[in-house]
From TrEMBL:
InterPro entries: OMP_Slp. Keywords: Signal. Residues 1-27 form the signal peptide. This is Starvation-inducible outer membrane lipoprotein. GO terms for cellular component: outer membrane. It comes from Rhodanobacter denitrificans. The keyword Signal applies.
Length: 171
């Protein structure tokens, strides 16, 4: 009986620790409707008419910003999103898309290479090029957008790593 009681604190501590770790993760920044599209940009590009006017919450790395007369366009290399809707930039890309922003956006606020999440509706597609290759870009009419800071990307992430050997981490 005594040995069972000795393991009781360990049995209680493990679920409590998991609960505390889950509580540290930031909540999603946008609310997805039940009809939101879960397809990746490369899938939408194959048949954009099938997804027309559907809500998406996509994110990725900013490739370039174009400021036009009445709107701005931000080309992104898409990445899957984590539970907090942060792009998982260490994952493989999921295609490219163009975030169509109303009015003027300051390109310095959307620097090339920064990570961004957008909430909006699919508004068709446009043929273009990536380098010399032909490409079809899904167009997202953006309702809300967020450019992630380094601090936000690291928030709620566990900095404890287990392993054998020597490692050097640079952030």
């Amino acid at each position: 009986m005594r040995t069972r009681l000795a393991f009781l604190p360990i049995r209680l501590a493990a679920p409590a620790a998991l609960l505390m770790l889950a509580a540290c993760a930031p909540a999603p920044i946008y609310k997805a409707s039940s009809a939101a599209v879960t397809a990746a940009p490369f899938q939408v590009a194959q048949s954009p008419e099938k997804f027309s006017n559907s809500q998406v919450i996509w994110g990725g790395r900013i490739v370039q910003v174009k400021v036009l007369a009445d709107h701005s366009e931000i080309e992104l290399l898409a990445y899957p999103l984590d539970a907090s809707q942060r792009p998982k930039a260490n994952d493989s890309g999921s295609g490219r898309f163009i975030a169509v922003m109303p009015g003027y956006v300051e390109p310095l606020d959307y620097p090339s290479g920064a990570l961004m999440t957008v909430d909006g509706k699919l508004g068709g597609s446009r043929a273009g090029k990536v380098g010399e290759a032909d490409y079809v870009f899904p167009l997202v009419s953006v309702a809300q957008s967020h450019v992630w800071t380094t601090e936000e990307m690291n928030k709620g992430r566990n900095n404890v790593h287990f392993g054998v050997g020597l490692g050097v981490g640079i952030r």
